[in-house]
């Protein structure tokens, strides 16, 4: 487990602070790992406090990482370059947050607790940035023939390949 990185988000934004670094993927929470085929590598983060045109405090969070996700067709690993850039808007009260979200459905709003764990924020962003149903352009033949070994009809295999995502 990575040690939490705690900030006071409102103060961080008000003072226009920045924070950047790298975290080993292996130290992130299990809920991140469950979407990955392995947990090697690290994620680079850049966090910038600011305020938007409505004078609301914001945190901009940018992430890059070379990850491996699981192909949903052959269940083998495949590389995925994560590259996200998002802004969360901070609100001092739930009431103000609800009001703002009603006016702007796209708003990524967070209630500004006195302490915010930057790592938890990064984990949330990774999960949202991962592909929903990743698939190789072409799965390797070895893996496929293993996966389909119990199906004798080659046309069934072809049909399965052509079928749009089934969930
Ligand atoms: Zn595949």
TrEMBL record:
Keywords: Ribosome biogenesis. It comes from the Bacteria. Pfam families: YceD. Plays a role in synthesis, processing and/or stability of 23S rRNA. PANTHER family: LARGE RIBOSOMAL RNA SUBUNIT ACCUMULATION PROTEIN YCED. Belongs to the DUF177 domain family. This is Large ribosomal RNA subunit accumulation protein YceD. It comes from Chromobacterium vaccinii. The lineage of its organism: Bacteria, Pseudomonadati, Pseudomonadota, Betaproteobacteria, Neisseriales.
